[in-house]
Description:
This protein has 114 residues and is an all-beta fold. 0% of the residues lie in helices and 56% in strands. The strands form 2 sheets. Strands 2, 4, 5, 6, 9, 10 and 11 form a 7-stranded mixed β-sheet that branches. The protein has a 4-stranded antiparallel β-sheet with strand order 1-3-8-7, with no helix packed on it. The N and C termini lie far apart (40 Å).
Amino acid sequence: xxxxxxxxxxxVQAGGxxxxxxxxxxxxxxxxxxxxxxQAPRRQRxxxxxxxxxxxxxxxxxxxxxxxxxxxxxxxxxxxxxxxxKLEDTGVYYCHARSYESYWGQGTQxxxxx
Length: 114
């Protein structure tokens, strides 16, 4: 079992920045990769960024050059630094971990205003 807790969401003006954090606990050694997904109103949940156990990183095209995913050396906390935020970045951001099963955090709201 893996338990994920996100933090760092909020309201920000377009062009601003936010940093999300996701702390993992439980069977963290079994995690193959962790990442962030988001879900905007009336849209499907989509991948934002992920980082594998080996440090390989994938970004959605829509966030390349603006968002940075990273983790601490203990591999317990994963961060998502979001810069140059746009209105279309608004949504609920979910932390995800994949081991033998998929695990999700409770989600944190990010709202970008004009």
